[in-house]
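HUMAN: Would you supply a protein with fold tokens?

ASSISTANT:
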Amino acid sequence: MRMAGRKRKPSKSNRVGMYSIAVIVMILLVGLLVQSQSLRAKNAEYVTQIADLEQEIQDEEVRAEEIEDLAEYLNSDEYVEKLAREKLGLVYDDDVIYRVAQ
């Protein structure tokens, strides 16, 4: 018969089991903490990489606009005229030509 006021002490094997479980839980928590820190570092690295790539995209968009403007200029009559005057020495009929005597 049991007495109503007395509590049983946990047996020695129960204590060892509880301590073992507590140690395992602590090890798991430490592992999760380390993994969490690692993921935070990777996340910060990825955020930096995203910012760099977005800047590169903006730079390339500006460069693409400049190339389009240049292509438009190269196909214009103004450029053809300039090229004909400078490289080929062509002039309009009503242009006055000055030659330097040597």
Summary: The mean pLDDT is 88. The chain is about 70% helix and 0% strand. The helical segments are 12-74, 77-86. Residues 43 and 49 are 10 Å apart (CA to CA).
